[in-house]
Amino acid sequence: MSGVLAIAELRRGEDEQLAVRPGTYELIAAGRELAEQGAGPLAVAVIGPAADVPVDSVALDGVSEVIAVPSPEDRYEAHVWQAAAEALIEQRAPAVVLAGHTIDSLGFAAAVAARGRHGFASDVTAVAWTEHGAVAQRSAYGERLVAELDFPGKQTVVLLLRPGANAPAGGRHARANGGSPIATWLELDLAGRSRTERVELREAPIGEVDIAKADFLLSIGRGVGAADQVARMERLADALGATLAVSGPLVEAGWASRARKVGQSGRTVAPRVYLALGISGAAQHLGGMSRSQTIIAVNSDPRARIFDVAHYGAVADLFEVADELERQLG
Amino acid sequence: MRILVAVKQVAILAEEFALDGADTVPPHALRRRLNELDAHAVEAALTINEGEPGEVVAATVGDEHADDALLSCLAMGADRALRVWGEDLAGADALAVAAVLAALARVERPDLILCGAQSSDSADAATGVALASLLDLPRVAVVTAIERDGDRLVVQRELDGGALEVLRVGTPAVLTVQSGINDPRHATLRAIKQARSKPVSVLAPSELALDAAELEAAAGSRRLRLFELPEGAGATLLEGAPDRVAAQIAEIVREAISA
Ligand SMILES: Cc1cc2nc3c(=O)[nH]c(=O)nc-3n(C[C@H](O)[C@H](O)[C@H](O)COP(=O)(O)OP(=O)(O)OC[C@H]3O[C@@H](n4cnc5c(N)ncnc54)[C@H](O)[C@@H]3O)c2cc1C
Ligand SMILES: Nc1ncnc2c1ncn2[C@@H]1O[C@H](COP(=O)(O)O)[C@@H](O)[C@H]1O
């Protein structure tokens, strides 16, 4: 078993073109490092509808092969992806398979690992290739500790990398570089593998507000405690000249609209100022805001993970700070 | 229908603790409770069966601490509970747990299996999807709505970036549920009392024909060590009473916006 196989993630953009999602470049960066550490050459698999597979965009320096896998489905379908990944592993016998710790990957990667009895770790924050094979780090006890894992006896290890944990790969496209990327078209028998039927796709609502366009976000989390506090925080946001954003649970609880959600299943934002009140800093939240220019966090728990990405932090009661902000403005 | 809900008693680390050697947390530093998303899964199961014949069975892989989690599910309205435990299961990862749940499901033959989208302590977000593939059942991950459609289900799943996809899937199936799906009921005192008289069976892995070698082969990883993150550069702390904190925040915002 040798080599690294990264599975690209695609999304159809507003222009209807299939594009590689940015996290794929983080997989390529990690895969290149594994290759340099001795895991074997890096191949990138791009699974998608035949006519549209964006092969060129992953043909970067350090990628030895791009494997284009035509899919019978126009959309991501978890069981088709599973079948494709299983066939790729069988044919290429990679030592490491990399995919993003994204909602799409959550639908198929553990299925591939369980059925194939491969090594597996999700939400991986660091990975290295050693004389004993892959060693990975991920969080434990709800982000409070880090666990280091190895995969004894496993020929192939499937790893889902946390978005944002690796700097994205740059490098010229191999073609621009003079060399031509070795793009292989691999026809797999994927017909009939889908086990779900799409009824509808509801695009993300921009609706009432486009939080990705705001310079200053006042973002509130479950620390606000109750639905009626949301209106109050919205008034504070108005007074500050900020736009109100929220963490996932506030949307799930019906306290705020989906358009305001920051994170993996919400919007990705990078405002000049991100002021977080009562947000713990779960990976899915950080993934959507960690590239903000100035992050200020207020949380009563000194160990909250939000302080790891914040530039400024106050261990304080958010209501007391909110009261004071209002008083000083008014 | 018969709905099997896989639930986990999650561990919450105390604010202050010291690691026991290289890789264990002392038990007294842990509080335990039913994984929040699993309460949503139980609620979803009860809702699906409302006014229909059927049964909701809560199942866990865990030591006796996990009985509390099962009791919470029974108090919400689950009909009975199953717990699988044996010393070979200590430290079992998501794939090993999935193998145990798969063996259990082969005996129980549910029409639907619900899991949480992820557990709050290990956050593998993997168990349900692994379980589905071991049983060769269709699955949908990160589900925020479930409706019956004859003997099929129409479910809504979350996508990265905030889009929602509505899918039709046949049963039996495995769904992993996300919190937006419902608002779990609170058990009444009476229900909590009654829960104690509902059946809870405890099984050893051997009763499911699982031995140590099989569990080891099913596992996806081995834990080498646990450690605390080194304190990073971290945030510049804004000290003082709330009025001082607020004044500093206002100043930082002013500078950052005008820069
Ligand atoms: C597939 C999937 C996708 C997800 N997508 C997203 C996503 O897009 N966005 C997202 O945000 N989450 C998402 N989540 C949920 C995520 O895992 C966390 O559960 C969530 O981010 C936690 O939100 P929170 O920080 O507001 O709440 P909590 O984690 O409950 O934190 C509340 C914080 O408030 C603090 N606090 C409490 N009271 C006070 C007070 N008076 N003053 C100051 N501080 C106080 C507490 O110390 C705590 O740190 C997703 C989960 C899954 C499984
Ligand atoms: N030990 C366990 N026993 C029963 N179900 C579990 C166990 N661990 C995980 N699960 C189920 O799998 C879901 C996802 O957990 P995880 O894959 O650990 O993030 C949980 O919400 C449970 O529904």
Descriptive overview:
- The complex is a heterodimer of chains A (330) and B (259).
- Chain A is an alpha/beta fold.
- Chain A contains nine helices and 17 strands.
- In chain A, helix 2 (78-92) packs across helix 4 and helix 5 crosses helix 9.
- The longest helix of chain A is centred in the N-terminal third of the chain and has 17 residues, at 23-39.
- Chain B is an alpha/beta fold.
- Chain B is 30% helix and 29% strand.
- Chain B contains seven helices and 13 strands.
- Chain B has helices at 36-49, 67-76, 94-108, 127-134, 189-195, 212-218, 242-258, and strands at 2-6, 9-13, 30-34, 55-61, 80-84, 112-116, 139-149, 152-158, 164-170, 173-177, 200-203, 222-227, 236-237.
- In chain B, the strands form two sheets. In chain B, strands 9-8-7-10-6-1-4-5-11 form a nine-stranded mixed beta sheet, sandwiched between helices. Chain B has a two-stranded antiparallel sheet with strand order 2-3.
- In chain B, helix 3 packs across helix 4.
- Chain B is globular.
- In chain B, 49% of the residues are buried.
- The chains are: A alpha/beta (330), B alpha/beta (259).
- At the A-B interface, helix 2, helix 3, helix 4, strand 7 and strand 8 of A face strand 2, helix 3, helix 4, strand 7 and strand 8 of B.
- Bound molecules: flavin-adenine dinucleotide (FAD) and adenosine monophosphate (AMP).
- Flavin-adenine dinucleotide sits between chains A (103, 221-223, 247-249, 261-266, 278-280, 282, 284-285, 288, 298-301, 304, 317-319) and B (117-118, 125, 142, 178).
- The site of adenosine monophosphate has 23 residues of chain B, from helix 1, strand 4, helix 3, strand 6 and helix 4.
Distance between the termini of chain B: 61 Å
Oligomer status: heterodimer
Q: Considering DSSP H and I runs of 4 or more, what fraction of the residues of chain A is helical? A: 10-25%
How far do the termini of chain A sit from each other? 67 Å
Order of helices and strands of chain B: EEEHEHEHEHEEEEHEHEEH
Sketch the major β-sheet of chain A: 9 strands, mixed
Give unreliable regions of chain A as ranges: 174-178
Average predicted local confidence, pLDDT of chain A: 92
Structural class category of chain A = alpha/beta
**C-alpha Rg of chain B (nearest Å):** 21 Å
